[in-house]
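FORM 12-B: Structure-to-Sequence Request
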């Protein structure tokens, strides 16, 4: 994410140093708005669920995620996500993003973003009266170039707890967790989200989510937002996922408009 750069120095800082600092802050804001983006979500939403891929089954996504704030547009075009059921109730997860950053007052940047690695573990099974419960710790590796707005600038770790319950054609999941962000000018913070969806037909599922984040960068303040989306199942192995949304607070800094689109193969 970008803040408009000024030509003058601030507090005696040379212009080149200020630009480097701006890029780091922009990268942090980009990761916070996107992650999640890519990251950290139960596609096509930011909120995730506790349900892993079935044992010895696999998922592969080709996806794009984009977020616009004041003076900047950033995201992935594309990113690749792979999930594998390595054991009963345990799923391995990786996302490799080709990131881009398009500031209104500068050149477009693109390249490898921060790679995401995770393990999802379901430790409580869903019953008629009890929700499913699981954890999904995530590591965001420092692989993107923060000076170009393509990465966070340091590793991040997300430690969430997720719950899920289904009633007939309706399903709801949500929870939250704590982000540990080691980047300069970033703050550790909490993220919470909740989703509700309905299976409209054999092929179509529609839903929405609301989410909230405590302050993730100094002076940014907390933020909230929503997404609406769903999926279309062509058959048991081919699926289209989509969502659009925006921030409800601090939208200029975090999310004036965002979108997600993916093609998913399951086997």
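FORM 12-B RESPONSE
SEQUENCE OUT:
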């Amino acid at each position: 994410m970008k803040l408009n750069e000024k030509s003058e120095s601030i507090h005696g800082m040379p212009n080149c140093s200020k630009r480097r600092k701006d890029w780091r802050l922009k990268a942090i804001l980009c990761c916070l708005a996107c992650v999640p983006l890519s990251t950290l979500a139960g596609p096509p939403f930011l909120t995730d669920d506790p349900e892993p891929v079935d044992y010895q089954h696999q998922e592969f996504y080709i996806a794009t995620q984009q977020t616009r704030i004041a003076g900047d547009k950033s995201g992935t075009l594309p990113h690749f996500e792979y999930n594998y059921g390595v054991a009963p109730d345990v799923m391995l997860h990786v996302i490799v993003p080709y990131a881009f950053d398009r500031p209104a007052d500068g050149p477009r940047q693109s390249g490898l973003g921060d790679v995401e690695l995770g393990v999802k573990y379901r430790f409580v099974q869903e019953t008629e009266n009890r929700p499913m419960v699981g954890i999904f710790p995530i590591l965001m590796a420092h692989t993107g170039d923060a000076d170009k707005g393509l990465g966070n600038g340091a590793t991040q770790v997300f430690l969430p707890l997720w719950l899920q319950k289904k009633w007939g054609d309706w399903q709801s999941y949500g929870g939250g967790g704590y982000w540990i962000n080691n980047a300069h000018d970033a703050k550790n913070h909490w993220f919470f989200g909740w989703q509700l969806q309905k299976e409209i037909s054999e092929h179509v599922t529609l839903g929405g989510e609301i989410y909230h984040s405590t302050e993730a960068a100094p002076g940014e303040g907390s933020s909230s937002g929503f997404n609406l989306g769903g999926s279309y199942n062509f058959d048991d192995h081919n699926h289209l996922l989509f969502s659009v949304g925006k921030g409800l607070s601090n939208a200029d800094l975090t999310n004036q408009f965002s979108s997600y689109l993916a093609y998913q193969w399951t086997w």
